[in-house]
């Protein structure tokens, strides 16, 4: 899954390019005139030079400027020569990629913003798929939807490699991302519902590490397969294999019991017990035992709430707004940087590899941070480090590629830590009776952030540093919002809005220990 999400960052790389010139690129054109001229000389008389004395990427001379062959003529006095857009297309440097999305449909120069729109459409698929996933999986089950969407990802991803038009490609990627968002969300829910709460931090950590591994492997695959069609196929075909695996995966027992399918839940539990070698446990399981063990959870799931409780209650509103802004800021900056991976240095493959590798120690360290450090200070530090480094990197020259890469690796480390902390923090902030609803709101804001990050990159044509300024300011501003959220470290999960309000009164650092003990004793858990 990480392959396909990160494929947006690599598959749409922009190679060096220039206008197609009949005199230079058509070997049969004026052969008797150009036979004794080098390619550099022909380029000089056909393409104007930019301020860095490199060929312009989007303009060419209207007429061949033979006088420029004279060494006495200065190239700095050519501003009055007539130029025109690339009317006959472009010639691309194929030393890095033989083919990309940009070269396939010429998404350069006046069409370069189409890349950002395509990325925004792709992210919009996640925005649509996430709430739809929650709605359908609560009605048809985790496993059937997971199996269907996995097969759909394989089919849609394969079709993308053979899309004849850019509009069709965008439509396929939209449907693909909607299905892939469902696969990501459902697979994590299936894991969490199938294990006890003490294993949840470990599962979240392993899930995050698997995404990092996907990014590392993508760097290697992109190095091996330089044509985007082949790379698209390579990352899409494994979905067919995964779908076979999901055929034998058990349905969520918690969902089966919650929907009244107790007999089927008992059958699944016995099957799991036999697979784990616990035959005695499998034989002793009965419907009565299962119903008794799950009684407390079923009673919690039956509690109803009204939507006005979210809108009218000031505590809930503030936590939803601040929590949403935290998620928005983190995803906005991290996705924006990944979409602009080419700015990290000349070697896009090494950059992609290092961005994935650096997350391993970061996420392993975050596992211990989640267990031993408060949510508010860890979130604040992550945001301040990331935002400050992004702003500093604006002033670092592009010629200092190594320094720029090191700074971005530090940013990526900080944001990767925040993502894991945010998963724990957002779950601890909201009460049980509203958890799924409020989590869907948080999820919508993070997916919206991914869309906006792609669109913000299109503003670079108006002010080159504007995207990076925004990517740096949002995390710094979000670190201030942390002050308005309560600390949740080592506190029981709130079950009701009353528990949520009670804990919120103790968010200031000066709270007396006696008040905390009262909260721990009176909170339902």
TrEMBL record:
Gene Ontology CC terms: membrane
UniProt keywords, alphabetically: Membrane, Transmembrane, Transmembrane helix
Subcellular compartments: Membrane
InterPro entries reported in the protein's UniProt record: MFS_dom, MFS_sugar_transport-like, MFS_trans_sf
Keyword ATP-binding found: no
Coiled-coil positions: none
GO molecular function, one term: transmembrane transporter activity
Annotated membrane topology: Multi-pass membrane protein
Entry-linked Pfam families: Sugar_tr (PF00083)
PROSITE patterns named in the record: MFS
Membrane-crossing residue ranges in chain numbering: 117-136, 145-168, 174-192, 204-225, 237-257, 310-328, 348-370, 402-424, 436-458, 464-485
Primary residence: membrane
Domain Major facilitator superfamily (MFS) profile: 66-490
The protein's name: Major facilitator superfamily (MFS) profile domain-containing protein
The encoding gene: LOC100349650
């Amino acid at each position: 899954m990480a392959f396909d999400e990160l494929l947006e960052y690599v598959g749409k790389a922009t190679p060096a390019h220039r206008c197609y010139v009949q005199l230079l690129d058509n070997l049969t054109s004026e052969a008797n005139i150009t036979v004794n001229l080098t390619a550099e000389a022909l380029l000089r008389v056909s393409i104007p030079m930019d301020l860095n004395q490199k060929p312009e990427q989007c303009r060419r001379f209207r007429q061949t400027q033979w006088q420029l062959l004279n060494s006495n003529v200065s190239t700095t006095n050519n501003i009055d020569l007539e130029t025109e857009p690339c009317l006959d297309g472009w010639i691309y440097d194929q030393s890095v990629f033989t083919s990309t999305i940009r070269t396939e449909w010429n998404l350069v120069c006046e069409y370069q913003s189409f890349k950002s729109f395509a990325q925004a459409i792709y992210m919009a698929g996640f925005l649509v798929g996430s709430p739809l996933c929650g709605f359908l999986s609560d009605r048809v089950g985790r496993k059937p939807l997971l199996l269907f969407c996995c097969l759909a990802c394989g089919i849609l991803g394969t079709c993308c490699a053979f899309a004849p038009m850019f509009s069709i490609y965008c439509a396929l990627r939209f449907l693909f991302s909607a299905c892939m968002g469902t696969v990501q969300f459902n697979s994590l829910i299936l894991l969490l519902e199938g294990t006890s709460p003490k294993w949840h931090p470990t599962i979240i950590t392993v899930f995050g590490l698997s995404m990092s591994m996907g990014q590392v492997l993508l760097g290697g695959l992109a190095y091996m397969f330089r044509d985007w069609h082949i790379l698209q196929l390579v990352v899409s075909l494994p979905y067919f294999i995964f779908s076979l695996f999901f055929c034998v995966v058990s349905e969520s027992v918690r969902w089966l019991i919650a929907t009244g399918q107790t007999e089927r839940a008992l059958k699944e539990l016995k099957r799991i017990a036999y697979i784990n070698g616990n035959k005695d446990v499998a034989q002793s399981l009965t419907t009565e035992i299962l119903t008794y063990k799950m009684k407390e959870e079923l009673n919690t799931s039956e509690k109803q709430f009204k939507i006005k409780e979210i809108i009218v209650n000031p505590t809930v509103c503030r936590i939803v707004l601040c929590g949403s802004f935290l998620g928005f800021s983190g995803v906005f900056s991290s996705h924006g940087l990944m979409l602009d991976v080419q700015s990290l240095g000349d070697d896009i493959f090494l950059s992609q590899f290092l961005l994935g590798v650096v997350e391993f120690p970061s996420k392993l360290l975050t596992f211990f941070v989640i267990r031993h450090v408060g949510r508010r200070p860890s979130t604040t530090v992550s945001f301040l480090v990331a935002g400050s480094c992004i702003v500093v990197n604006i002033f670092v020259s592009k010629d200092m590629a190594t320094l720029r890469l090191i700074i971005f690796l530090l940013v990526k480390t900080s944001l990767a830590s925040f993502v894991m902390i945010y998963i724990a923090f957002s779950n601890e902030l909201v009460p049980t009776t509203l958890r799924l609803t409020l989590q869907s709101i948080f999820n919508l804001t993070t997916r919206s952030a991914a869309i906006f990050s792609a669109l913000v990159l299109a503003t670079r044509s108006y002010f080159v540093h504007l995207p990076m300024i925004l990517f740096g300011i949002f995390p710094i501003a979000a670190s201030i919002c942390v002050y308005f959220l309560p600390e949740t470290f080592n506190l029981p999960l709130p079950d009701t809005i009353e528990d949520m309000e009670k804990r919120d009164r103790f968010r200031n650092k000066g709270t007396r220990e006696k008040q905390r003990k009262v909260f721990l004793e009176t909170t339902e858990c």
